[in-house]
Amino acid sequence: MNITGLAELRAKAHEALRLRANERPVDGYEYHALVCGGTGCVSSGCKSVKSALVDEIRKQGLEAKVRVIETGCLGPCNLGPMITVYPDGIFYEKVTAGDVESVVTEHLREGRPVNRLLHRCPDTGRVLARLPEIPFFNRQKRIVLRNCGIIDPLSIEEYIGRDGYTALARVLNGMTREQVVEEIKKSGLRGRGGAGFPTGLKWQFTLQAEDEPKYVVCNGDEGDPGAFMDRSVLEGDPHSVLEGMAIGGYAVGASKGYAYIRAEYPLAIKNFGAAIKSAREMGLLGTDILDSGFSFDVEIRVGAGAFVCGEETALLHSIAGKRGEPRPRPPFPAQCGLFDKPTVINNVETWANIAPIILRGGDWYAGIGTEKSKGTKVFALAGKIVNTGLVEVPLGTTLREVVYDIGGGMKNGKSLKAIQSGGPSGGAIPAEYIDTPIDYEALAALDSIMGSGGMIVLDEDSCMVDVARFFMDFVQDESCGKCTPCRIGTRRMLEILTRLTQGRATKEDVELLIELANVVKKTALCGLGQTAGNPVLSTTRHYRHEYDRHAVEKQCPTGVCPMRIGPAQAKK
């Protein structure tokens, strides 16, 4: 396919999608019924709902009137299974297979939405029937998630109908490599994997590297507890990642890319693999893409689920068939990466940002966010909050807006105690900082990090010593063991935290715990080890009184920790 063919296909596919933009139907159908098929909704029974919907439509003879589409994650995981009916965008939540007959009979046949399945405002009980009316959706700005829950992720035509691969065509039809890199630099996009390094600068270093061949790598090894942003993008909009990688390949002079996806994400692997296949068949991957002379292809490498393989040098070792262990830097991957060749490595969310930046310009993207943190960020909301799931907001949005306006506030009338951001590498932000704008620098000032975007909300019943013990247990278990500070330091910290929760520790143990966390932070080999002590450092800074209650008074203020142990445990 050439650029003209792509434009013709886009125009045709766009017409078929007009129904989902609340415009008149042009594809012969009167309704499109979208069933959320992300992993969260799969676990809540969306497959049986979709099957029942297809059967009931056939039973009532409505096949020519209604088209059923399984989409990726729409966002609010606590409301699944969900059905959205277009052209009006009527949103049904917590649908069961038993509800389907009513939806088909009353709505799709008679044109009357089923009132009992519509969303209700938790505060007022007012019915909010359409997606744009619901605060969870209308307070977001969706760039990365622009297609998730809107298109069929297995249809390349639907992606093209939403301007997919138009950015790649633009790049190949008149932009130099340097111009592409400059556009990404102008956008101010920083890596969404955790470190926040400027993406354009990373691309420039790889472009300037003289060694060949060069590689492009997508880090899909999302391992933070509570994080599932990358999984949802790979499941719901795989072509957006693929297009970003192809643009990156052109910009730095690479003809080969690898997507490293953890084995626990079977649906993401399946959908991304299908996207690669369909892109190859259409000439959007492979040799001489769009008759431009540029060749680029992508392969999937399935990770075994080791947390350390989220660290870029460990990930590159794993792709090369070696043990997934980090190495000292420099040299950085831009000079010496995969197979010791220059390599650009970005995570899924970063790659999904690339095509919109090329289409709308770096200045447009830089106009969103704060002075040093541009664009939007996807967060995985979890914990003791009313609305859990994926949200995408401009950087600079306050924690209060995310927790209360979008997340719906605390469950069961409890009060907010803390927000754990950044997973095991991050820290607990106390409730009094709820009006802090979310950006890289503001979170760092509170001893936390953006990380990949995990955001766990804790209420008044949470024990901060137990929270630190949970994350230390995870980090200690996932340490690759290559460097002594991380291997032994995390083990000793976990032992102290365990003794604290069992009423066997002293005040001196708390001091030793803090000392150990600082030593590991300064001496560990890689970023994961260097941040392993963050949960300890942030909780001892903000909640030292809880540690003292455990150590001195042998009491857990919230009653979470048992503070008593059996004889067998006491011998350890």
Quickly list its features.
572 residues; alpha/beta; Glutaredoxin; Rossmann fold; Ubiquitin-like (UB roll); five-stranded mixed β-sheet; 24 helices; 42% helix
Provide the number of structural domains: 4
Helix percent reads 40-55%
The CATH H-level superfamily of the largest domain is NADH-ubiquinone oxidoreductase 51kDa subunit
Number of helices: 24
What topology, given as strand order, has the largest sheet? 12-11-15-13-14
The secondary-structure class comes to alpha/beta
Stated plainly, the CATH topology of the largest domain is called Rossmann fold
Nearest-angstrom radius of gyration? 25 Å
In angstroms, what separates the terminal alpha carbons?
Answer: 67 Å
- So, CATH architecture of the largest domain? 3-Layer(aba) Sandwich
Strand content: 5-15%
| Quaternary status | single chain
- Classified by CATH, the class of the largest domain is Alpha Beta
In the predicted model, the low-confidence regions spanning at least 5 consecutive residues are none
The count of β-strands is 15
Largest sheet: 5 strands, mixed
Task: Name the average pLDDT.
Answer: 93
Which geometry do the CA atoms define? globular
Protein name: NADH dehydrogenase (Quinone)
Pfam families: 2Fe-2S_thioredx (PF01257), Complex1_51K (PF01512), NADH_4Fe-4S (PF10589)
Enzyme class: oxidoreductase
Domain NADH-ubiquinone oxidoreductase 51kDa subunit iron-sulphur binding: 465-510
